[in-house]
Structures are given as structure tokens and as C-alpha cells.
Amino acid sequence: MEWFVFFFQLWIQENIEAMKTILVPTDFSQQAENATAIAANLAEKTKSTIILLHVIEDNAISMVSYTGELAMPGIEDRLYIYKLIEKAKHQFQELRGKYPGVTFQEEIKIGNPYYGVQEIIKDFEIDLILMGTKGASGMQEFLIGSNAEKVVRNAKCPVLTVHDDMNELKLNTVAFATDGKIGGGEHLKVLKKLRQFFDFDIYLVRVNTPNNFLTDRDSTLELKAFADNNQLDNYKLRIYNDVTEEEGILHFANEVNADLIVMGTHGRTGLAHLIGGSIAEEVVNHTKRPVLTYTLKH
To answer: Which domain holds residue 245?
Structure first.
């Protein structure tokens, strides 16, 4: 019976903490190349496959792969798109040459970048999206523009955003922001996987605000329960008081000099998003630190 328990536990660990596919949306900018470099580094460690996605933006075309039939009004438009496709294929080839030990799969789609990402998530079992950003200069500066807001808010897998001057992921300190009330989510699985390759401290932090206040005792109990329920060990608990949750997360990350911020987003849409916004989007928008986010389910 003991051997069965051992192999069953091993099977659970391998399946829960697997990271098999990493999606990197790219426009071949410097930010995207740095994101690809970080993804390649992770892929070498985790033996993952990197899906490189390039979307040729054209609002007049429904989302298609480059192998599909293009419904465009004139021959000039077709030739222009085909030239962009050939250019992208050449740029993919150059990227592959930089990382000979990594397995790549290239995807070219035509249409809206956001929906291109959504299609790839559905078509492949994506474990992590890794995106480059210019950092604290506004969400519009994301590599795929304002569509990245939707990716962070709605992706059905964790999203790791990295700053434009990063080409290597170094993790010594991680700030994991949570209210302790909702399950850990897929981003916690990614965090556990990263911990197999990086020796970092985890600060499990709850931000107290005037509108969402708990005593230190109650906050500590909730955070401990969260850690126990998600089999999280070797962590430090912190309660941090601030005016808003996003400011608290940013200030705390600065205080401990975090190499990574980890948090969930509630994925608000429509009127709820206009009224309440998204804390995760605000944090990503106002920090130069890597941020790992995931849309939590209620």
C-alpha cells in the first residue's frame, strides 16, 4: 500500500505543477524579444514548448490562420498581407536560431490580437502566457496595445507580464497578494513550479483598506487557512495597511523589493469593470516589476 501512496502523490505533484506550454504573443519588438528570452529560459528549465503567436492586425478580416483563405476586397490587400506573413515567418526562423535547445511552435493569425490570443488558448492547453510591456508608462504601451487589458482580465490561464529591459527572470523575493477568501487558482500552480527552479522567499500579504478592513488576528487566520488549503509552505505572513488595495500591493512590493508580484483578478466586465476597475490591471500598469495574474472564479 505504501508504494501506491508514494506513486499516487508523485502523479499528483507532476500533474498539478506541470508547465507544458508557454504562449508568447509577439510583434517582434524589443519588449517581445525580451519576453521570448525569459520564456526560453523557463522552457529550458521546465521542458515546456513555447507557442509563438504573431497576429497581423486587420479589422476587415475575421480571425484566420495564415493558411486560411483571406477574404479581402482587392489583390493589393492580399499581396500586402502575404508579404507580412513571409516577413513573420522569416522573423520566427531568426528567433528559433537564438534558442537551439528550446522547442518552438509558430502560429500566425490575421485579425484582432486579443481574439488571436483567445483562439490559441482554446486550441492549445496553454499553462502560461508571457507578455512583454514597456512598464509603468500606461497600459496602452503593452506590446499588443489595449487588447492586453482584456488578456490580463479574461485569460483562462495565468499571465506573466515582464518589463521591457528584462531578458532574464531572477527570483529572490515574491509578493503574493491575496484576501485569503478565494482559492489559489492556476497562478499558484505556476508559482510552485517556479519554486522548483528558483530559491525565493514568499510574502503572503493581505492589504487592509478603510473599505475592506480586518483585524490583524482575523487576517492572519484567513491567510494561514489559505496557505494550508493550497499546500503552500515556507512563507511569511504580512498585513499591510494602505488607502487602496493596488497602492498597498505596489508599496509593499517596493518595501520588500519583490522580484515578482503574484495576484488574482476578478475579471470584471461591462458596468462592473467601469465602476470598480481591475486591481490587477492597475498594478500591472503602474509597476516595472514582473506580475503574475490569474482570473479568479467565485
So the answer is: 173-295
